[in-house]
User: Fold Enoyl-CoA hydratase/isomerase from Nocardiopsis dassonvillei.
Amino acid sequence: MTSTSNDGNAPDLRIDGSLPLSAALVAEVNAFADACEDAGPGTVGTLRLRGVPTGLPVSDEVTVHTVNKWERALRRLERVDIATVAIVEADCGGVAAELLLSSDLRIMAPGSSLRFPATEETAWPGMVLYRLRQQAGHGAARRCLLLGLPFPAEEARGLGLVDEVLDPADARVESLLASVATRSGPEFAIRRRLAMEASSTAFEDALGRHLSACDRELRRLRDETPSEEPARV
Assistant:
């Protein structure tokens, strides 16, 4: 099951990865993104993930239009104004694994594993393959395509798919959330987007965007109104 809460202005979403993609799940993720957009700076959106499907994460009701809405919901989540933290509480796969790759900071329980959507015959051809290739390299994507093997927590950390391997009840998790909260907000979102676009943007195009962000930061440090105009080069 999935559940969303926004107690104390801190969005929190629980996802059961054993359940298939559905219109209801898309709505749930969009509601979480809404809560993240409504939250102020210093707030962290938390995703709590567990569960592995027995096959591909789709149901009979799913059409390519549903998949398109799902991919757009994930993309939206990647661009919300606050930071998001995914906490993998147990073995995680399917839609939960896709959400993991769309979050900012990833924490995985010791002994758990990460399994991307696949059957014994093939891998799900959604944008999860794109994110896996972008974030962990061609070798990880090839392994997913050819073998469909899970990624144990320590291996996932070594590949950069997760940042920390910690028990969700460990006090260090709360410490990490508090640390992320100090940076969470629109300024973080600007820098996140610059980093995300780096691999697909030519230097000359990126330069103007980075200079614009630097100009904004200099104005902010001087307590001036940040410029809405891009820096001219």
Notes: The first strand starts at residue 3 and ends at 5. Residues 186-224 form one domain.
